[in-house]
Amino acid sequence: MTATTLELKNAHACFGGAQRFYEHASREIGLPMKFSVYLPPKALMGEKVPAVLYLAGLTCTEETFMIKAGAQRLAAELGIALIAPDTSPRGANMPGEADAWDFGVGAGFYLDATQAPWAKHWRMESYLLSELLPLITDKLPIAGDRIGIFGHSMGGHGALTLALRHPGVFKSLSAFAPISNPVNCPWGQKAFSGYLGEDQSAWNSHDASLLMSEQKSAPYPAGILIDQGMADKFLMEKQLLPEAFEAACAKANQPLKLRMQPGYDHGYYFIQTFIEDHLKHHATQLA
What we know:
Layout: E1 7-14, E2 17-25, E3 32-39, H1 41-44, E4 49-55, H2 64-68, H3 72-78, E5 81-85, H4 124-139, E6 142-152, H5 154-165, E7 173-176, H6 186-196, H7 208-213, E8 224-229, H8 233-236, H9 242-251, E9 256-261, H10 268-286
Parallel strand pairs: 4-5, 4-6, 6-7, 7-8, 8-9
Antiparallel strand pairs: 1-2, 2-3, 3-5
């Protein structure tokens, strides 16, 4: 299997489209990487379709969103492809890589590590931007100029930061319960100190709230959508800090719809409930 070869591991007919699971040899990661794609019926008929890249949260895989979110039915109707990569490298067999659920395997935080031993394989930002997106737009019927990004929790952090760090790549942006201000929460501080080192100045360029506060004009003038459950234990534990991102958007005159949803927690029942709004948000901006 070469770096440019996609190995189809599984495929399922789904709402007239196809749910597929792929593996390929990654040059950026230096290991095999897995991702999933839902192709709507239009794509199977040869039409290049817009797509939304979904970044999952801690402990998840490339399967989690496709199995749990209930997104394919509406994606088929809207003619949008869904892309979900794995959340970290796997199979590096480094000491300590699986010792914690919030660091290492399943916890790549969608950045390029600079600290040993993580810097060798934990290169999720370069993998997504320099390898996965060019690969799927080359090999699959996906329009590379019409791609949005969203994510959940750690993946919400990834969606917000990658969208702000790579202007123009993603045409639409949303998130579910994102880690919005990681330099000021325990999850972020643990991950950033391990992957980026103790110099906290290196952390700032991976913090969505700090990145947004530096914007001279709104990077997404058509608006950003964030849903946050008010019964989310991680909100109460000050891991998510959506108020910091809200303040940063206000400073940058960035339109933001931050919806605090009473009774909803951090899990996929929450995501299932509001996935339709997010897909329609992206569809409108990717049309």
